[in-house]
Each structure stands twice: as C-alpha cells, then as structure tokens.
Amino acid sequence: SELMLDGVPGEINKEQRQCLDDTLSSGKHLLDLINDILDLSKIESGKIKLSLTDVVLTDVLEGLKRTMTPILAPRKQSLDIEVEKGLPPVHADKAKIKQVLLNLLSNAARFTPDGGKLKIEAVRKGGWCHVSVVDNGIGMKKEDQERIFEPFHQLDNPLTREKGGSGLGLAVARQIIEKHGGKIWVESEYGKGSRFSFTLLLAPAG
User: Fold this and answer.
1) Which stretches of the chain are DSSP H helices?
2) Could you give the CA distance from residue 119 to residue 133 in angstroms, rounded to a whole number?
3) Backbone angles phi, psi at 132, to 5 degrees
4) 120 forms bridges with which residues in the sheet?
5) Interval 143-164 mean pLDDT
6) Where's the Histidine kinase domain (predicted)?
7) Confidence check: pLDDT of 199 > 50
8) Among the listed residues 83, 177, 66, 67, the one whose alpha carbon sits nearest the alpha carbon of residue 121
9) Rounded to an integer, what distance in angstroms lies between the CA atom of residue 92 and that of residue 181?
10) Distance (Å, whole) CA 150 – CA 49
11) Could you tell me which residues are beta bridge partners of residue 195?
12) CB of 137 closer than 8 Å to CB of 187
C-alpha cells in the first residue's frame, strides 16, 4: 500500500488514494492490536523481563517531544515538558517507559481538540518520581475513569466519531508500571481534560 501511495507502480487517482489510505490505516491498526495483545500476554504470564538501568528522564522526554511534534503538527497541538530541576534518574526499563509515555501521549492527542495543549510533568516525591501526561481535551466521565485501564475498554470520541486504538494500550501501560513496582492512575473532569500519572522508583544515590 505504501509503495502504491508513493506512486511507484504509477499515478493513482483521489478515490484510489483514499482506499489505499484506509487499507494502510487498517493494517497498522491490526498490527498495533496484535503487538498490544502479545505485550499484555507476556506481562500477565510473567515472561517479560525488564532491563533496569538508571534513566535520565529529561533525555527521554526531550526525545519523545521530537518524536511527537510532527505527529501533533497537523492538528496544531503543542507539547510542553516540565521536569523538576535536579530530578535524579529513575531505576527503570528505558524502552518500556518510552512505550508507556507514547501510549499516554497518543491517547491524550486523540481526545484533545485541534489547537489543544499537552504537557508532561516529572517531579520528585520522596523516593519516587511522579510523571504525569496532562491535556486540555474532552476529559472523561467517572464511570469511564474506573474502567479505563481494563483490556479492550474504549471511549467514544465525539471529536472524530471514532474510538481508535486497540483498547489495550492503557492495560499494557498499567502492567508495565506495576511490573516496575509503581502505580498508575487518572484524574479527569468531563469537558475539561485529563491527567494520567504514574510513579517510578528513583535510582539509589551514588
């Protein structure tokens, strides 16, 4: 599909391009679903192993901002990073934490109107780092907040009339954070936005 969209076999018309776009989108959605199912099954069966190192969150977050900026640009959404000055490294699996954050950012963007604002905050609280992904999107109702981390639970999106996503991303995120010994939760007010937060242990000093 990508080769045809690039015009490798020859020129295509508008209707053909739309069909190919839909096919490519469906294929990517199916691949995401399969990957999420595999991730969740590995975690639940205890087969997943964390590669724990001391991770400087500032570096991770700045990298995520570079990744997300072109994705957010078409809808004129912005992403800001706020990290507490002098925040120590966290003891975590860098790749898995990036996966969690990308998942939370993708969800935030999906449920935030054009021109909306997203933000990642990281602060120290005792021996823990609290990381939050904040948006000024549509928020969610109380009953949805109680079920949002359950596998296959999806919200209707009045912005697009589509649910999107696999319905597994947040369940995978919860399992990854709990595997690290942390916790993850959501605070939201319907119509005003959401804050997804999780905790990670700070790396031992010295």
Assistant:
1) 2-5, 14-44, 57-72, 94-110, 142-145, 169-179
2) 6
3) -130, 140
4) 81, 133
5) 69
6) 1-204
7) yes
8) 83
9) 10
10) 22
11) 134, 187
12) no
- Give CA torsion, residues 164, 194, 116, 130, to 10 deg: -110
Report d(CA 56, CA 147) in Å as an integer.
32
- The pair of three-digit structure tokens given for residue 185, joined into one six-digit string: 């939760």
Residue 165's identity, in one-letter code, is G
Question: Cβ(88)–Cβ(202) under 8 Å?
Answer: yes
Is it the case that residue 163 has pLDDT exceeding 50?
no
Closest of 155, 154, 157 to residue 168, by C-alpha:
154
Residue type at 121 in one-letter notation? E
Residue recorded with tokens 């966290």: 90
Cα–chain-centroid distance for residue 15?
32
Both tokens of residue 81? 């990073």
User: Measured between alpha carbons, how far is 203 from 113 in angstroms, rounded to an integer?
Assistant: 37
The CB density around residue 10, as the number of other CB atoms within 10 Å, is 6
pLDDT at 159: 56
CA dihedral 45, 50, 56, 60 (to 10 degrees): -60
52-102 tens-digit pLDDT: 999 999 999 999 999 889 889 999 999 999 999 999 999 999 999 998 998
Report the C-alpha gap between 6 and 62 in whole angstroms.
Answer: 31
Closest residue by Cα to residue 193 from 127, 118, 130, 105: 118
Sequence length of the chain is 206
